[in-house]
Write a structure and sequence with these properties.
CATH topology: Oxidized Rhodanese, domain 1
Number of domains: 1
CATH class: Alpha Beta
Shape: globular
Oligomer: single chain
CATH superfamily: Rhodanese-like domain
Distance between the termini: 41 Å
Radius of gyration: 16 Å
């Protein structure tokens, strides 16, 4: 008889992030996108932290998203922060934003706070890409 040994989670070796991330609703994100005075990548950016679930059939991405998988985000935070530090709203999401999205937002905010007062704040898209797709099905891009 084989016994299965529980494997540690992908984030087990990383520090537990402290602050609670700020929530942003799909409606609030849509308002940002509809505001002609705001530019994605300058005034806000959406960070999709999914990895393997992007390969699932029917998978979609947000039209303003960059993909930075959660599994490698912590290790690359210094570079990620340098790239995003001048963007006021950095909006993280995963599939439903119940695990990876909030964890990554907290890591990002912890790192940003450790660098002193700044101009960037982490947010979490409530409900993740699933909520976005349900509310705005015409505002997604097919992965495959």
């Amino acid at each position: 008889m084989s016994s299965s040994i529980p494997q540690p989670t992908w984030f087990a070796s990383q520090p537990t992030p402290v602050p609670s991330p700020i929530d942003i609703s799909v409606r609030e994100l849509k308002e940002l996108m509809d505001d002609a005075t705001l530019t994605p990548g300058k005034d806000y950016v959406v960070v999709d932290v999914r990895r393997t679930d992007l390969d699932e059939p029917g998978s979609v991405i947000h039209p303003c998203a960059i993909n930075l998988p959660a599994q490698s985000l912590y290790q690359t935070l210094p570079v990620v922060f340098m790239a995003l530090r001048h963007i006021p709203k950095v909006i993280f999401h995963c599939s439903s934003s119940k695990g990876r999205g909030p964890r990554c937002a907290r890591w990002y905010q912890n790192y940003a706070d450790s660098q002193g007062p700044g101009t960037t704040t982490a947010y979490v898209l409530v409900g993740g890409i699933k909520a976005w797709k349900e509310a705005y099905p015409e505002q997604v891009k097919q992965v495959h």
